[in-house]
Amino acid sequence: MKQIVICDKEYDIDCNAFTRFQYKKVFNKGIFEDIKVLNEFSEKQNQIRKDLEEKNASEEDIEKAINYSMMENLDDFIDVIEKIAYILIYTVNPKMETFENWLKGIKKIDLSANWISEVTELAVNSFC
Asked: Relative to the CA of 73, which of 41, 56, 84, 117 has its CA 20 to 30 Å away?
């Protein structure tokens, strides 16, 4: 079990066989389909970075290019990361409020926040 912090609130998270089952029950789709979205997002970022580093682009230019290029995938990425975070929290605490109510308590999605990489890493390492 791990802890993450989202908007100054600590949550215990975990991942097991129940997580996959509950994800399908709550979101009406398999978790692997959404983990694929996370992997593709990450791979695209890495490829853009690699291509620009080979052209000796500055770090600032690389970051701008990544941010611009990833905009078309950002909605899907945020949707998936929120769902996976919720279900990892739910795995530890099945009396958790509904997904929609939980989201209402999230004031801001900071894409550089540690919890995003921690959730991604736990889900990917647990299932892949």
From this structure: 56
